[in-house]
What we know:
2 domains, 39% helix, TIM Barrel, five-stranded parallel beta sheet, alpha/beta, globular, binds zinc ion, 21% strand
Amino acid sequence: MIAIEGAYVLTMDGPDIAAGTVLVGDDGAIAAVGAQGAVAVPPGATTVRAAGHALLPGLVNCHNHAGMALLRGYGADLPLRRWLEDRIFPAEARLRSDDVYWGTLAAAAEMLRGGTTCFADMYFFEDEAARAVDDAGMRAVLSRGLVVLDPAAAAKLAEAEDFCRRHQGAAGGRITTMMAPHAEYTCPEPYLLEIDAVARRLGRPLHVHVAETAAEVQGSRDRHEGRSPVRYLHDLGLLRPGTLAAHCVHVDADDIALLVASGAAVSHNPASNCKLGSGVAPAARLLTAGAHVGLGTDGPASTDSLSMWETMRLAGWLAKAAGQDAAALPARTLLRWATRDGADALGLGGVCGRIAPGLRADLCLVDLRAPHLQPCADVPAALVYAATADDVAKVWVDGVPVAEGGAPSRIDTGRALAECAVRMRRLIEP
Ligand SMILES: [Zn+2]
């Protein structure tokens, strides 16, 4: 039993607790939550003294290609299409499976030390990503990205199905799976439908890029009788509860209505959309319309940081500036998107994303005593507008400490970064 005592607790499940006690059982589940003094701490519990800290659910990154940590910074300042076609696709063609292990492990080190306990991934060699997630002690929703440009598209679809069958519930339940048609513009209709048929057969959700750039939307309208990617995927039956639509930058009122009505979730990835010059997603309008929204970073070669603190802050800033409305996307909404709503978007709402008895103890403890966080009139505002990954003091997944004082507990970060440096040179300088 672990007793975390004295922190400002953002349960994301009800009112905050100014000085709380959270008990974590030996089974890795949250056993009790309440005000300090109101929760009986059993004798023998390991106590974590957390006054001066905020305790919140571990952050959930809803869109990532973690293995791309190998290509961080490569092709900087190119627009999406040239970045992909001139730099990323040729480098990825040289990827070996063990590259993805080390890339994902390095990304996991960055995420865990910054308080991110769970991420949704879409990449290749996902067996190796799963091995890295297991070794790191993280939680993840993994999917093998599928594009028909690949000459072996049919074999890759079979591989993706096999991956879902073998890894659903793996790593002691920390790994779940999705089927991932990369996007409308990389998957022609028969392939999209084949992938969807497999997803339905397996009972697994879809993870797909949607309306990331204006060019993508125009291409979809040209290819599909004037239909936007949202309308097209909706008409094919791919938007439904459980579907995770990454980006949704260039969506109009009709698209937003379809997203809401379908029950699909949106991963809003503001840093990637900024860096790749894709545009600014109408996040405040998605919120007002009632869409399910989580936050993501996109891959470490697109953003290039995997910090969910920067992601929350940027999402808030962009919505406020673009709408000339300081009330757009309040801090508490951004925290909810980064925790509870993100977990819901990944089908993990009954598992993590809130601090409530019975849920898995995926927790993030933030030290509020640094100068940029003091004095602290409003904890949610301090966390969203000023906190950084370096303020994260301690992180648990399934009740197991996985990072402390800026260092992942189960990853040899130095070795992982050295492996990535060597491998990146091979990928970009053949
Ligand atoms: Zn992406």
